[in-house]
Design goal:
single chain; mainly alpha; Arc Repressor Mutant, subunit A; 2 domains; 9 helices; disordered N terminus
Length: about 230
C-alpha cells in the first residue's frame, strides 16, 4: 500500500546534513514533476522529462521514485493533506459557521495561489491513480469534503432552514469554483488571494442564503453520500 511519503533514504545518508540533502532533492524532484505534469499532463509526461526538469539523471530519478505513479501519488497526497490540515488549523476557535466558511475559502485560495501547478495537476489527474494509491488519496479528499460539507450544513441549518437545497450540489459547486482558479487566476497580476477569497465566499453565501424567490432550487437536503464520480473535492 502507498504511504504518505516514506521513501527510505539509503543508509549511507544517516547523518543529519546528508538527510537534509536527500530530502531537499526529493522535494525538488516533486516540484519539477508537478510543473511537468501541469504543462503536458500525466500521460504524456515521461520519467526522462521529469529527470530533465529536475536536473537529475534518469538513474538518479529512479533512486528516489520507482515510477510516475508514486510521484503523482505524493503530489496529490501532499496537496490534499495540506489542505485538510490547514483547514483544521484555521477552524480552531472559530465558532460561527459563516466565519468557518470564509476561513475554508481563504485557506484553499491561499494554498493554491502559492501552488498553482499542484492545483492544475490535482484537478486534471484525479482519475490517473489506481489501487492503494487512489484509495489513500480518496480518503484524504473525502475527509476534506466532509469537513467542508459540515460547514455548509451548519450555515443552512442556522440561517436558512426553510430552504430546500441540494447540499451536496452546493458544496461541490464551491469546490468547482475554487478548483477552476488555475484557468484564469494569476496572483502576480490579479487581485490578492485574500481579496479573491473574500469575494468567492460572499458570492457563495449570498447564493445559498438568498436564492431567487419563486424558483424551484432543488428537492430535499441532499443528504446522500457523494458518489465516486462527483465527490472529487480537489
Amino acid at each position: 500500500m502507498f504511504e504518505s511519503d516514506r521513501t527510505p533514504a539509503p543508509s549511507v545518508r544517516a547523518d543529519s546534513g546528508a538527510r537534509e540533502s536527500y530530502d531537499e532533492r526529493h522535494n525538488k524532484i516533486l516540484a519539477a514533476a508537478t510543473e511537468v505534469f501541469a504543462q503536458v499532463g500525466y500521460e504524456k509526461a515521461s520519467m526522462r522529462s521529469v529527470a530533465k526538469a529536475a536536473g537529475v539523471s534518469l538513474a538518479g530519478l529512479y533512486h528516489y521514485f520507482d515510477g510516475k505513479e508514486k510521484i503523482l501519488f505524493l503530489i496529490q497526497f501532499r496537496a490534499f493533506t495540506a489542505l485538510l490540515n490547514s483547514l483544521r488549523e484555521k477552524l480552531h476557535g472559530v465558532e460561527q459557521p459563516i466565519d468557518q466558511l470564509r476561513a475554508m475559502v481563504r485557506s484553499h485560495v491561499d494554498y493554491f495561489a502559492a501552488n498553482m501547478a499542484a492545483l492544475k495537476t490535482c484537478s486534471h489527474e484525479l482519475d490517473s491513480l489506481s489501487g492503494a494509491a487512489q484509495e489513500e488519496t480518496r480518503r484524504v479528499r473525502r475527509a476534506y469534503y466532509d469537513l467542508t460539507r459540515a460547514i455548509v450544513d451548519r450555515i443552512l441549518d442556522e440561517h436558512a432552514p426553510q430552504i430546500s437545497l441540494d447540499r451536496h450540489a452546493a458544496t461541490m459547486s464551491l469546490f468547482g469554483t475554487l478548483n477552476w482558479l488555475y484557468r484564469w487566476y494569476d496572483p502576480r497580476r490579479d487581485r490578492s488571494p485574500t481579496a479573491l477569497a473574500h469575494q468567492i465566499a460572499e458570492q457563495f453565501l449570498n447564493g445559498v442564503l438568498h436564492p431567487c424567490l419563486g424558483q424551484d432550487i432543488g428537492e430535499g437536503n441532499g443528504t446522500r453520500a457523494p458518489d465516486t464520480e462527483t465527490s472529487k473535492s480537489s
